[in-house]
């Protein structure tokens, strides 16, 4: 049966308009993105098949282009559309964060960092450079590593912070393993960076480690 033959309040698009996007299942949201099904399968049927094939929505969203395009009903055009949607979401959060005092709204900061870093398959070390009002001047990747390491040099971090005229910094890095618990090396690096930046009166406000679940805050642990 085609979706157009369903009762109107059960059709994903109409359901979204009437009740909001949060009321839809993963399969229904994906069906709206897909727009059409394939022979003998509605868009919702196809969406369910894809979620089973990839092991869930998140796995589908982070699939490589070859794996994504190999699935029945998908292709390079759909892959490009999905990547565009995800980048729009990231940029929306970045713009939203730029208008806020990030210290007074830690939830927005966490969500931004989680979306940027959680699904990477290699470690990256990043910084939110802030002005004197704790508003974002820039978000930059300072080091890119392998699956479990990124080389960060305090002198280069200090140089970049001064170039953007930062008054404060929030550091963040991801653990591709998914375990967000900070290591002793993470704590040691944060201490060295804090001491280097303090020499020019730039404050290190926090360091987030992003893995599965809620990013871990050094400040909340009492380490800053």
- Major sheet details: 5 strands, mixed
Overall mean confidence score, pLDDT: 86
- The low-pLDDT segments are none
Radius of gyration: 21 Å
Number of distinct helices? 9
Number-wise, the strands total 5
Judged by helices, strands and strand pairing, the structural class is alpha+beta
**Can you give the helix content as a percent range?**
40-55%
Kindly report the spatial arrangement of strands forming the biggest sheet. 2-1-3-4-5
Give the N-terminus to C-terminus distance in angstroms.
59 Å
Categorize the overall geometry. elongated
- What portion of residues belong to β-strands? 5-15%
Q: Give the ordered list of helices and strands.
A: HHHHHHHEEHEHEE
């Amino acid at each position: 049966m085609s979706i157009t033959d369903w009762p109107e309040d059960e059709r994903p698009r109409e359901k979204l308009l009437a009740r909001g996007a949060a009321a839809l299942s993963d399969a229904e949201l994906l069906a709206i993105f897909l727009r059409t099904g394939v022979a003998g399968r509605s868009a919702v049927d196809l969406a369910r098949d894809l979620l089973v094939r990839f092991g869930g929505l998140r796995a589908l969203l982070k699939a490589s282009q070859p794996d994504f395009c190999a699935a029945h009903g998908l292709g390079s055009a759909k892959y490009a559309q999905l990547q565009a949607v995800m980048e729009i979401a990231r940029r929306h959060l970045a713009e939203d964060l730029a208008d806020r005092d990030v210290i007074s709204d830690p939830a927005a900061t966490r969500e931004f960092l989680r979306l940027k870093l959680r699904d990477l398959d290699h470690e990256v070390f990043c910084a939110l450079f802030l002005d004197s009002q704790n508003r974002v001047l820039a978000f930059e990747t300072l080091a890119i590593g392998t699956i479990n390491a990124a080389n960060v040099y305090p002198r280069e971090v200090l140089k970049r912070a001064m170039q953007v005229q930062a008054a404060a910094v929030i550091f963040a890095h991801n653990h591709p393993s998914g375990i967000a618990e900070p290591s002793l090396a993470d704590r040691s690096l944060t201490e060295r960076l804090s001491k280097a930046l303090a020499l020019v009166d730039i404050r290190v406000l926090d360091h987030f480690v992003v893995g599965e679940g809620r990013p871990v805050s050094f400040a909340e642990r009492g380490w800053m």
